[in-house]
């Protein structure tokens, strides 16, 4: 893997994580504003697919580094890891938030 490839992979990782984050927020909005839970689930699945791509890149970078510092720790790499971590956390929280909105929507109005 060349330096150019590594930089491209880092940018792709940032893009995938950012897209996943955006999809999760869209899913939460669908659940909250429209009560469209099937669409929210589709958006969450798309977010998870984007995260899967980001994880694959991260795994490739880690395996290339072999714990020996072969890949320089740049600001871009730290930024990519931060984006990925936040996207993973938001995906987990998004699942819970959507579930809460579903419970609220399914509760009889007199018990709200």
UniProtKB/TrEMBL annotation:
Where in the sequence is the active site? 79 (tele-phosphohistidine intermediate)
The answer, when asked if Transferase is one of the entry's keywords, is yes
Q: Which Pfam families match?
A: PTS_IIA (PF02255)
Name its GO BP terms in alphabetical order.
Answer: phosphoenolpyruvate-dependent sugar phosphotransferase system
Q: Which Gene3D superfamilies match?
A: Phosphotransferase system, lactose/cellobiose-type IIA subunit
Any idea which residues bear Phosphohistidine here?
Answer: 79
Annotated Mg(2+) binding lies at 82
Q: Which GO terms describe its molecular function?
A: metal ion binding; transferase activity
How is its cofactor bound, per UniProt? Binds 1 Mg(2+) ion per trimer.
Question: What cofactor does this one take?
Answer: Mg(2+)
Tell me which InterPro entries the record gives: PTS_IIA_lac/cel (IPR003188), PTS_IIA_lac/cel_sf (IPR036542)
Keywords for this protein: Magnesium, Metal-binding, Phosphotransferase system, Sugar transport, Transferase, Transport
According to UniProt, the name of this protein is PTS lactose/cellobiose transporter subunit IIA
Native species: Morganella psychrotolerans
